[in-house]
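Reviewer 2 asked us to include a model.

Predict the structure of this chain.
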Amino acid sequence: MWLNGRILIFIPPLNKNWKIMKYPLSIFFSVVIFFLYSNLHAGSTDSLRYRLDSVKSAERAEILVELSNALVYSNTTEALMFAEEAFEIAATENNDSLKYAALKAMGYANGYLGNYETSLQNMKMGLDWYERIGDSVKIAEALSDVAYLLQSLSSDEANIMEYNLRALSIREKIGDEKGVAYSLNNIGVLYWQWGKHDRAINYFYSALPYFEKLNLTEETATMLSNIAAYYTETGMYHKADSFYNCSLEKYRTIGHRNGVAQVLAGMGKVCMLQEEYDTALEYIGQSYQIRKELGDKEGQAGNYYNRGLIFYKKGLFDEANSELKRSLELAEEIGSKHNQILILGLLAKVQEKKGFYRLAYNYLQKSKALNDSLFSAEKHRQLEEIRAKYDFEKKATENELLQTENENQRLRLEQNRLTLYLLSGIAVLVIAILFLFYLRSRERAKIRDLTLEHQLIRSQMNPHFIFNTITAIQNYIVQHSPVEAVNYLSRFASLMRQILDNSRKEFITLDTEVETLENYLNLQLLRFPGQFDYRINVDPEIDPAKVLIPPMLVQPFVENAIEHGFKGCLYPCIINIGWSLQGRSLVVETEDNGTGMKYRKKDSLNHEPFAIRATNNRLRMINKRGKYRFEIIDKSVADEKNSGTKVVFSIPYITQND
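Predicted model (structure tokens):
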């Protein structure tokens, strides 16, 4: 299930078996390999075979399962045979635990052989058993296995993702940090496969801290390489280079030469995309030397192809032709038709540039013939899979129909007056229960609304703020004009009245919200004179007197900026609040230039989560009328020279006429 981080221009075929592919620009990898690998026994197969001849019954079945897991890569057919024998022994002895261990081994072997339907049956039976005995670790593992098999058999993204998310949820609940890391990675792989790279990168970033915390150096290096691949694909070459360098250092630390070769090839691609061809050739040359020593022919073919592509871009067509022919020889030797198609296509372009049009035509013809043969083979495989699914579902349907008929016959024989009374009683009971549930749901809704109103008032009537404001007014009375103090006291009273009035309303006009904010900010300026300034902007297309918005959405984040974000700032502090119209959505933005989120985590540990939680709850309520967006951005993440926090809401645009 692991992304191995090689990002090359040379794209290999997608292996229909469960082997990890070696060049993941495609990143269509198995999401189950790690769990299989983690269960392999360290003992040699020879010692297991030796022990097999001297034991019987349950102990023999246990050794057979170990042998199956150990041989699933090298001799899959024999591995399946051992697993099936273990299952027969376990079934004979009625040993459920051992039976499902054998089932799992059968599932891996069948999946590796491409028997996905049979493998899926094995894994689902295992999942059902683990759910019955309540083994959370095994349940999560089985969910990931089933997700992979569904990925091989179906394009139902929602169903596949559901299994992965269930596995992630279980691992989070039981505190399995390693399992959480691998689940996050699995989900990222799926999003990458489905072309949703922006979602994939979020999961890769989420998995990375777990691997670092657990000191899993190889996994950390691989994840860094995957993140670098994302930045390469999106054209952020500086970031890609930075992550590749970190990955390279970790691979070298543990002596993982294959990983070093992969990263060097990825760095070569980054240089090539920036037209730094000489540096790219140097990286690719280092990658090739390692792969040659490791005997990695597919990797060498990729290096030759990349060198040929660079020479082609530089206009050195003779050199490009030589490199591509070497790449083609290796691709033919290992039987990689997808790679041959890619190489032949570039060779045709090279010959065309050299003026050898007949040779270019021959290369294109050969490429087309290979492509047609692959297409035919793929169609045949798909038809076989569909036929297998049909046979499986047909048998299942026949069994269900037979069971249903038998059950109906039994019920017809047992029907009598008592059954009618019983059904009537059940119906009345169900109606009563549903009515009670209805009443309970209404009460819960009322409690939720009251709680939300309480949170809303609490978010603005902060006792700390009220106390400090009254103290500031007292000081103002002593040190300044009583007339101005009365003015501030009037503002304070007006603000309290507005908060109480607005908190009871679902919507208020935008000009009322602006007035409340101005009262609040002016009182804060009384507490912190000259320490910050604010700007409130409303899009000219918006009529503040007619637009309706939920009350007090912005204030908790304004308070957070003043109380925490501006603490320790030595430069002029500014809060910008703006409302703009985008289509049928009203976008609300609050931005400050304070210290940013990373410097106030400890300071706002108890405050900021409350504001976020309360705002999220309110927006979910509002969402009944339309879609919304809620985002908190640390500006220093995008640009280290900037600081501060930006909060963005997107809510439905509603007017008094709606």
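The first strand starts at residue 508 and ends at 509. The beta strands are 508-509, 532-538, 547-549, 573-582, 585-592, 629-634, 645-652, 654-655. We have added this to the supplementary material.
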